[in-house]
């Protein structure tokens, strides 16, 4: 196997987040499910945005956040995602490159505008997301660079991008290219919302194409339609080489066909914003894993980076975090 140019290539939705702090009453009054993500039209998002207070714009997208976290930890990261050649598309491209991530996907010349996500942050740090996917829905195999997939140790796929048929085709193509190059394929289930919509498709794709799976407790329980975490854990260990399962304050569990490794949660003083906690965990895990650290150490770094992210506003590290890869166990 040739040396890798990148530690991780991420494929996902390229989104600009609009962050707004709000109250629980606002969510109830507008019929929103706290902590969930919903897909909305541009008009629906604008109508809700007009009711909110001051906002902060910040480049986001689940996989893009993960790649920014990997780069912040000193990893070699690349991202593929579709944006329009418009103002917000330019903002996204600038921000992800400034974070140290290679971004070479050509901007779209026509079609829907760059995607936006209205992130409503509750006083307890929970985030409720109203997402307009815009240009993201047109991501297709033609947006993939096969050479880039071949050059990455791990290709990381964002479950949120599973909805459109062309993007799903791109996932299958990326997985095939990666495995033919003797590389690894990782998938994030992203949200119970995604699992509920695409359970059968996810199950087949995981069984046939995924080496490393990232899921939180709600997602893995939904995938197997059970309330028993141990039962879900046993089922996933028979399907993938590595499953990294996060459980909020309970920490995480790394499951392989041979072993189960429980890692406590990192200490957190105060939760400001849970936006991107799972993305950060995946970033820490993959950064450590691709640098040759043990699975236990990878889970520890994932937990540490997630703890950093939820104690700030925004889903990408705002301070130097490379020290998190030092003095690891194993």
Protein described:
The chain is an alpha/beta fold and 330 residues long. The protein has one domain (6-15, 61-113, 135-325): Ribokinase (UDP-N-acetylmuramoyl-L-alanine:D-glutamate ligase, 3-Layer(aba) Sandwich), CATH 3.40.1190.20. The protein has helices spanning 24-29, 42-49, 62-72, 87-98, 146-150, 165-180, 192-209, 217-224, 229-237, 277-290, 295-310; strands at 6-11, 15-21, 37-39, 56-60, 77-80, 101-103, 115-121, 127-132, 152-158, 184-188, 212-216, 242-246, 252-255, 260-263. A hairpin with a 5-residue loop joins β12 (242-246) and β13 (252-255). The two termini are 25 Å apart. The model has no long low-confidence stretch (mean pLDDT 92).
Under CATH, the homologous superfamily reads Ribokinase
> How would you sum up the global shape?
globular
The level of helicity is 25-40%
Name the CATH class. Answer: Alpha Beta
Overall mean pLDDT stands at 92
